[in-house]
Design brief:
The chain is of the alpha+beta class. Helix content is about 50%, strand content about 10%. The chain is built from 26 helices and 18 strands. The strands form 5 sheets. Strands 1-2-3-4-5 form a 5-stranded antiparallel β-sheet. Helix 3 (about 70-75) crosses helix 4 and helix 17 packs across helix 18 (about 420-430). Mean pLDDT is about 80; it is low at about 435-475 and about 555-560.
Length: about 625
């Protein structure tokens, strides 16, 4: 779906970032701006600023910043298009769909109206279930017996579906309304057209999307009935292969904890929140999919899958591995936690304590080790046949990984296990070996010209230049120019940057910052695009002149251009230097403002970065 840039600009002109942010963060007027506690990291003193004049938010503590669309993407985990649609709906604007026929637009409008109506129906049912819970001592006793407090039950919106076959008839006077069946609340017998409630005598767990809207339910039976757990069916608003239980409730805790813990059921999620681990989510009766993994990586760079240690748990973990491999970049972490067969997370914490569970999580099996274990399962490495079997098993797993240091290291490890060279192994697999990065010499570069446009960048900075260009090509004049060119040539590199690196790029002064924000939007909207497609999209854009300047002589990748992995490494090195310089600038600004607390906070961040550098 193509959204015209002019519409985005008009939408941001109408939207009030103070109003949007204020719905999630308590803001107080402080001079020309509004201040509050940052929703992206834990803090006791407000360092989160929202500017009504610039229509921009910025946290001086963690560096997060952006406009109203960016806030919805970052805080609510929406995609670019979801954030635009959500914001447009709030301000009564219709998102144009230039590439759709009138019939398609009409169908899309009807679908959106139906989805909104179904959500309203589900919300109404959820309210009724919560009222029934308050009136059911038996259901309350069950939740208390599981160690759940009223506060946690309220946080997750837990309810109770009574035993009657048509309890919802008291909530919806028109029990024959097709929407009740379409939402999954009511089952219609095809033989005699009789209707009855899907959920009966069950603890009800509302399933919410990233916007907090109820899109379905999970029900846990109170007695000995079957099935033990029952979910809503697939509907126009609910797809179990894309949704995660508890993600909406956990979104803030994920940033504070630094990782998401994926469990096997919604009772695990609620129990973990009660026991001090509010960063848990669960799949909904299905194996973890690539859609699930992609959605989690919108909120955090680290995922820990938790499974039972039995054979079924191992099979589930193997499927989760398949879903995670395409997103296992070098800046992300995926681990697998296998609990003792007699324990789930709840029982483990109650027996051994929260600290013991936290240690268990920290020692979880990394993806690299689990991949090797999965590939060598059932293989006798003492025989040529067993090693050949391992090579065959490993090929699809290794191939699914994105290119990077992790993939290259695993190639070497697999080759060693099967007693082949890496070249022989890739030749056997029929794939090309990842290109080795070219060696480049470090040098000092005077960038006084950069300081005029990007205040705070120090002169004589220590840089790692790109390979020398061919005759007729000139490298961009500044670091910001260089970063823009790398991303125009390798658009997909944006997908592999950390949140801190995204923040650094987005806050560059015009014209670089707006152009990079546009590139980010294009990636969310259309996926990675070649320079030729980006060139067309930039026509009459404010960043067109800058793009043409940095791409002069680079009208397409040439045979000796650096490969994508090398370009990403080059970009990372460049951003690392830029971030150091930015932190130094912020230190100076804090000292000039006589804000010692802020200076110490920024200085600690810079020193911590220095310690972890290789």
């Amino acid at each position: 779906m193509a959204i015209p840039q002019t519409f985005i600009q008009e939408l941001l002109a109408r939207a009030d970032v103070v109003e949007i942010v204020g719905r999630y963060v308590q803001l107080k007027k402080g001079g020309a701006n509004f201040m509050g506690l940052c929703p992206f990291h834990g803090e006791k003193s407000p360092s989160f600023s929202v500017s009504p004049s610039k229509q921009f938010y910025h946290c001086f503590g963690c560096g997060k910043n952006g406009n109203a669309i960016g806030f919805l993407m970052e805080h609510a985990g929406m995609t670019f298009i979801e954030a635009v649609k959500d914001l447009a709906q709030q301000y009564g604007m219709q998102v144009p769909e230039d590439d759709a026929s009138p019939q398609d637009r009409e169908r899309a409008a009807q679908q959106r109206a139906k989805q909104a109506t179904l959500t309203d129906v589900l919300e109404k049912a959820g309210e009724a279930y919560r009222k029934h819970l308050k009136a059911s001592p038996r259901a309350i006793d069950y939740l208390k017996g599981r160690g759940l407090s009223g506060e946690v039950a309220k946080q997750f919106g837990l309810g109770y579906a009574p035993e009657g076959w048509r309890s919802l008839a008291s909530v919806f006077p028109n029990y024959d309304d097709p929407l009740l069946a379409e939402s999954g609340l009511v089952i219609v017998n095809e033989d005699d057209d009789k209707r009855y409630d899907r959920f009966r005598d069950r603890i009800m767990f509302p399933i919410r999307n990233v916007k907090g809207e109820c899109i379905g339910f999970g029900g846990r039976v109170l007695g000995d009935g079957t099935p033990k757990y029952l979910n809503s069916p697939e509907t126009p608003v609910f797809s179990k292969g894309r949704e995660l239980y508890g993600l909406y409730e956990a979104r803030n805790a994920l940033r504070e904890a630094g990782y998401v813990l994926v469990t096997e059921g919604y009772m695990d999620v609620v129990a973990l929140a009660q026991l001090g681990f509010p960063n848990a989510v669960a799949t909904l009766g299905t194996a973890c999919t690539t859609d699930h993994v992609q959605k989690m990586f919108r909120f955090t760079d680290s995922v820990v899958f938790s499974f039972d240690g039995d054979a079924a748990g191992r099979r589930a973990a193997r499927k989760a591995l398949d879903g995670a491999l395409p997103y296992a970049t070098d800046v992300r972490s995926v681990k697998f936690l296998f609990l003792p067969a007699e324990h789930d997370p709840d029982s483990y914490i109650r027996e051994f304590g929260a600290d013991a569970f936290a240690r268990y999580v920290s020692e979880a099996t990394p993806l690299s080790r689990f991949l090797i274990d999965a590939a060598r399962e059932g293989c006798d490495l003492g025989s040529a046949e067993g090693r050949a079997h391992l090579a065959s098993n490993a090929r699809p797993l290794w191939s699914a990984l994105p290119d990077g240091a992790l993939k290259r290291q695993l190639l070497g490890e697999i080759a060693e296990l099967v007693q082949l060279g890496t070249h022989e192994l890739t030749e056997l697999w029929g794939v090309g070996a990842p290109a080795k990065p070219a060696r480049t010499a470090r040098r000092y570069e005077n960038d006084s010209a950069v300081r005029k446009t990007e205040a705070g960048y120090s002169p004589n900075s220590y840089t790692t230049p790109a390979p020398r260009p061919r005759a007729g090509r000139a490298w961009p004049a500044s670091r910001a120019d260089h970063a823009v060119r790398l991303l125009l040539v390798n658009h997909a590199a944006l997908e592999h940057l950390t949140s801190e690196e995204h923040t650094l790029l987005s806050e560059l002064p015009a014209p670089h910052g707006p152009l990079l924000a546009w590139l980010e939007g294009q990636l969310h909207e259309h996926g990675p695009q070649p320079w030729a497609a980006l060139r067309e999209g930039l026509r009459e854009h404010d960043g067109e002149a800058l793009a043409l300047k940095v791409m002069a002589g680079f009208e397409g990748p040439a045979p000796d251009d650096p490969p994508a992995a090398e370009a990403l490494a080059e970009l990372r090195g460049l951003l690392d230097l830029m971030l150091d310089d930015r932190l130094k600038q912020q230190e100076n600004e804090a000292l000039a403002a006589n804000d010692l607390r802020l200076y110490q906070q920024i200085h600690a961040r810079r020193k911590a970065r220095t310690r972890v550098k290789p």
